[in-house]
Amino acid sequence: MAEFSKILRKIDTKKRLSVPIRFLSSLPPFKLGSHTVTFEATDEKGEAWTFQCYIRKRGHPKPALTRGWVAFVKSKNLQVGDKVRFTKHMNRATGTISYKVRAEKAIKIFGATFGYARI
């Protein structure tokens, strides 16, 4: 099982979510010559979300989730300081791969974050 989590910054809530390079190998393969790959992730409520991961054409790939990401942020009412977690699961019996996405709201008291609650 591969996974990554990230505490959201302003750009993550407004435009795109940067993805760690190490997670790229967990995504479906990019077609030859393509700089995007689309995949589906299911949230805690079982709702499917379609995301597109983009990489640069030259130099450092700097992967980011673009298409579908802002709609997810708005739906979950995510803000700077909240957390998101992506996991890849492989069903060994069937050989199928699935992705999960989990949003977590920051628990703040007097402006300090004390943890995260699943939403």
UniProtKB/TrEMBL annotation:
Top-level taxon of origin: Eukaryota
A single GO molecular function term of this UniProt record: DNA binding
InterPro entries in the record: B3_DNA-bd (IPR003340)
Start and end residues of each TF-B3 domain: 2-105
PROSITE patterns, per the entry: B3
Alphabetized Pfam families for the sequence: B3 (PF02362)
Annotated coiled-coil segments of the chain: none
Protein name as annotated: TF-B3 domain-containing protein
